[in-house]
Design goal:
InterPro entries: Fungal_SecMetab_SDRs, NAD(P)-bd_dom_sf, SDR_fam. This is NAD(P)-binding protein. GO terms for molecular function: oxidoreductase activity. Pfam families: adh_short, adh_short_C2. Belongs to the short-chain dehydrogenases/reductases (SDR) family. This protein is an alpha/beta fold. It has one domain: 3-Layer(aba) Sandwich (Rossmann fold), CATH 3.40.50. The protein is built from 7 helices and 7 strands, in the order E-H-E-H-E-H-E-H-E-H-H-E-H-E. Strands 3-2-1-4-5-6-7 form a 7-stranded parallel sheet, sandwiched between helices. Strand 6, helix 7 and strand 7 form a beta-alpha-beta unit. The longest helix is centred in the middle third of the chain and has 25 residues. About 12% of the residues have low confidence.
Length: 286
């Protein structure tokens, strides 16, 4: 029976991760700690993705009410070091001596400005890079006591019309949709998401550093790209419904063990093995 902590869990990808995990039998998923800055789902959020249909405050609350013994809401602002420490203490108390098995660092932000207009780099680093670091570091003692020992960093991207053309011209090179890739920057150069690119590239390195640091302890620390999903930011022309992307993401999280340590996985979706966005279950370019 596995225990999970998900950041940015009140909407979008985080909410869908929580929903699908809660739908699994208790023999597979014992408990889910659903963490977010605003558990009441106010207009501002640190979640990496929003549903294509805007959610109401009751969406998350309803899910918790449906699974009161299996979902615990956890107040957590990933930019607040003291708050992250308090969240870890809350989860430790709830686990009653047991360990945490899987940490999913899902919370994140993305701006849409050109390089010369970029003024959100510091705040983006706080959420997208230092946030996962603080959460991983503070929850590491609980993860060391867990049986699965998995740390998953989510790298999500939202293509938009200004750079559809350049992406389509790279059919033979594209295998995933990740703006943090050095190898794919020539493809995504027109994407006006500069702070996101920079911080997600840094998150890639952070993932590798933690993977190397924890390898001898039997951890699996890896990145997952859940694809271009039909969210508010992704838009209705995105490739996949949120549920499909999350389902494929969970396949990776559930099935990858220590052999996945330090790697960057693309989801697998039948029928998407070729084309300018391939979801072939392979590995993404760093």
């Amino acid at each position: 029976m596995t225990t999970y902590l998900i950041t940015g869990a009140t909407r979008g990808i985080g909410l869908e991760l929580t929903r699908q995990l809660a739908a699994k039998p208790a023999t597979e998923v014992r408990h889910i700690f659903a963490a977010a800055r605003s558990l009441s789902l106010s207009s501002s959020t640190t979640s990496t993705a929003n549903q294509s249909t805007p959610q109401t405050p009751s969406d998350f609350q309803t899910l918790v009410k449906e699974h009161p013994s299996r979902i615990t809401p956890v107040p957590l602002d990933v930019t607040d070091e003291a708050g992250v420490r308090r969240a870890a203490q809350l989860v430790e108390q709830a686990l009653e001596g047991r360990g945490l098995d899987v940490l999913i660092n899902n919370a994140g932000v993305m701006g849409r400005v050109s390089l010369m207009e970029m003024n959100d780099l510091t705040s983006s680093f706080d959420v997208n890079v230092n946030g996962p670091h603080l959460v991983t570091r503070e929850f590491l003692p609980l993860l060391r006591k867990g049986t699965m020992k998995k740390i998953v960093n989510m790298l999500v991207v939202y293509p938009s019309s200004p750079f559809h053309g350049s992406m389509r011209q790279a059919t033979d090179k594209s295998s995933s949709t990740t703006l943090g890739s050095f190898a794919m920057q020539s493809v995504y150069r027109e994407a006006r998401s500069q702070s996101y690119k920079i911080t997600k590239a840094a998150l890639n390195m952070l993932t590798v550093l933690y993977a190397q640091e924890l390898e001898q302890e039997g951890f699996a620390v890896f990145c997952v790209s859940p694809g271009w999903l039909q969210t508010e930011m992704g838009g209705p022309r995105a490739d996949l419904p949120v549920a499909d992307g999350v389902r494929a993401t969970l396949e990776i999280i559930l099935n990858k063990g220590k052999e996945g340590n330090g790697r960057f996985f693309n989801i697998h979706v039948p029928g998407w093995n070729s084309g300018w966005n391939r979801y072939d279950g392979g590995e993404c370019a760093w």
